[in-house]
Amino acid sequence: MANIQFTIRRATQADAAAMGHLGALLWRAHHQWDQRRFTTPSLNAEANYSTFLVAQLTDENAAVFVAEQSGAVIGYAYAGLEPGSFKELRDPCGYVHDVAVLEEGRRTGVATALISAATEWLAAKDAPRVVIWTAEQNVAAQRLFERLGFRRTMIEMTREL
């Protein structure tokens, strides 16, 4: 693990372009892993994802954190409080919806710090547990999540019709 200096903070409107770029990278990676399961990234993926994440900044039940290195955003995490769901057979919880880090920030502790910030925020909001999803092919993320104490609880299976 490389030793880099970074700061974790709440995202602001000024981070819109960087968050859009990272969100689009996340979207494209998922689509590349499974083009039938994940939606095709739009032509304006960066702008669309930026608009989505910026809208979350004013939601009291959501939080977006960024990792900043030398004035540049190199990663973000998006978390939110979710009500109980009969469909998912679960009580209310916190979700870490997105974690995305630029290649140069991977395996440096950035993702761990982002997930920690998100889970601390969720704990402060009295979430009884945190749920996180990952693509089947994203083995590196699965290993990270397991190291951080997450356990497997569901396996999604998809069949095309």
Give the overall silhouette. Answer: globular
Query: Which secondary-structure class do the elements indicate?
Result: alpha+beta
CATH superfamily: Gcn5-related N-acetyltransferase (GNAT)
Helix and strand string, N-terminal first?
Answer: EHHEEEHEH
CATH class: Alpha Beta
| CATH fold-level label | Aminopeptidase
* Largest beta sheet: strand ordering: 1-2-3-4-5
Low-confidence residue ranges: none
Strand content: 15-25%
Largest sheet: 5 strands, mixed
Rg over CA atoms, rounded to whole Å, is 16 Å
Name given to the CATH architecture = 3-Layer(aba) Sandwich
Q: Let me know the number of strands.
A: 5
Question: Can you summarize this structure?
Answer:
The protein has helices at residues 16-33, 45-56, 110-124, 139-147, and strands spanning 7-10, 62-69, 72-82, 93-101, 130-132. With 161 residues, it is an alpha+beta fold.
